[in-house]
Specification:
heterodimer, A: 258 residues, alpha+beta, Alpha-Beta Plaits, 2 domains, two-stranded antiparallel ribbon, 9 helices, 9 strands, 24% helix, globular, B: 164 residues, mainly alpha, 2 strands, 43% helix
């Protein structure tokens, strides 16, 4: 009895979402599928022919290295955030926006320690999207979970719903920001899988590039749906896990050797 | 009921009149700021009277397309608006586009319409375009990002997340 009630029924989830306003009916008939060729800025809408994802090999992720975090900060303008005047250092550390957290996991029995970067897991069934009252949290056709800042009202329900604590809220006015990554007071944000790079036809994310530059190569970025992509080959050849598999969210970010 | 209808039509006639007066006033002179790239061009991405009337609709429409479907190769991009219409100080430092007397401010001040665009969007091209030339998606600015320095290291550990 207990088992049945705990099993997650995706059909029921989909039914509820449809009944709640038809927002789940995202499949548009007659949409043509295009392949993105070369490093051209995107001129056709994204399609579900691709699903972006990542594989993080925690055995290669070095203790004390934060190259991915630094690269993310620079790519997405997070390093431009300024501590508001009069705010304590401690509070600012808790409140500033962070897209990747380096997490250390220790097995209490064996004492084995794993290091891993934790960011938005780009779930197939994202809880943040389920709870968003305005539709600001959404999943793009290519699997990237985003916040539309134009419609975000800053209620932070998504932050509570996210099992990965991946989202950040911007508490104060933001004076300096990048043209390609807008940011402002009162909105929630999280990892976008470098969506600006995706739309400019680039191959990788800032964190994966930085990890490769450091020589660790712990992060592989790519298209999960393309069976020939380096990511898919790695996923097929090694045992990988989702964090909180029990929630059946089918995350786009997978981990190995955890 | 009849009163409400009359009042409604009077109001719309009044509003239409006010808009016509505003348009006539605006059509007489250019608000393009000297020193901006826009000042060197004949007209905007569409004829000037059309842009004056409809730029807000174009931006509203475009923002949904860009955010939700990822289309960035468009002529109605706010990043390109800023890159083209921003003016520069004597030291080639860009002046915020919504600053006093700048391109956005002059008309919006006149029309008493508040803009919320720049609560989130950058008011100057960041990072600065190479050779002072902007164009293409994201104002042609995307790959210059690495030039930015001053990275911040975040403390490690699972307890350091941003709290609601």
């Amino acid at each position: 009895m207990k088992e049945t009630s705990e099993r997650i029924d995706q059909q029921r989830r989909a039914f509820i979402a449809t009944a709640a306003g038809g927002a789940a009916a995202t499949v548009v008939p007659g949409v043509l599928l295009y392949t993105v060729a070369g490093a051209e800025p995107r001129s056709e809408p994204v399609t579900s022919a691709v699903r972006w994802g990542m594989l993080i090999d925690t055995a290669k992720c070095a203790d004390g290295c934060s190259a991915c975090v630094t690269a993310c900060d620079e790519e997405n303008g997070l390093n431009l955030q300024q501590k508001p005047e009069g705010e304590s250092e401690e509070k600012w550390e808790r409140q500033k926006s962070v897209w990747i957290r380096k997490v250390r996991v220790r097995d209490n029995l064996s004492g084995h320690i794993s290091n891993l970067p934790l960011m938005c897991q780009h779930c197939e069934h994202p809880p943040c999207v389920d709870v968003c009252p305005t539709g600001a949290s959404f999943k793009r056709a290519d699997g990237i979970v985003l916040v539309d800042r134009h419609t975000c009202i800053g209620c932070r329900y998504c932050m509570l719903a996210c099992p990965y604590k991946a989202r950040s809220f911007i508490h104060e006015r933001v004076e300096s920001k990048l043209s390609r990554v807008p940011r402002g007071k009162g909105c929630v944000e999280s990892c976008t899988l470098c969506v600006q790079r995706r739309d400019d036809g680039e191959a990788s994310t800032a964190c994966a590039d930085a990890c490769a530059r450091e020589g660790h190569k712990a992060i592989v970025f790519g298209d999960i749906k393309d069976s020939e992509s380096p990511l898919s080959r790695r996923l097929a050849s090694m045992a990988t896990r989702q964090i909180r598999e029990d929630l059946a969210l089918n995350t786009g970010v997978r981990y190995s050797n955890v | 009921m009849a009163n409400a209808v009359i009042r409604g039509s009077l109001l719309s006639v009044g509003l239409a009149g006010a808009l016509c007066a505003l348009a006539a006033q605006a059509a007489g002179d250019s608000h393009v700021v000297p020193g901006s790239r826009a000042a060197t061009l004949e007209h905007c991405v569409a004829p000037t009277p059309f842009m004056r009337r409809n730029h807000m609709e174009l931006l509203l429409h475009q923002r949904d397309i860009t955010v939700h479907t990822g289309v960035v190769s468009t002529k109605y991009s706010i990043v390109d608006c800023v890159a083209c219409h921003v003016s520069y100080t004597g030291e080639h430092k860009p002046i915020p586009i919504n600053g006093e007397g700048q391109f956005c401010d002059t008309c919006h001040e006149d029309a008493a319409v508040q803009m919320d665009c720049f609560e989130c969007h950058a008011t100057v091209p960041v990072p600065a375009p190479k050779n002072g030339v902007a164009g293409g998606p994201h104002g042609g600015l995307v790959r210059d990002a690495v030039a930015l320095s001053g990275s911040v290291l975040h403390p490690e550990g699972p307890e350091e997340g941003n709290r609601p």
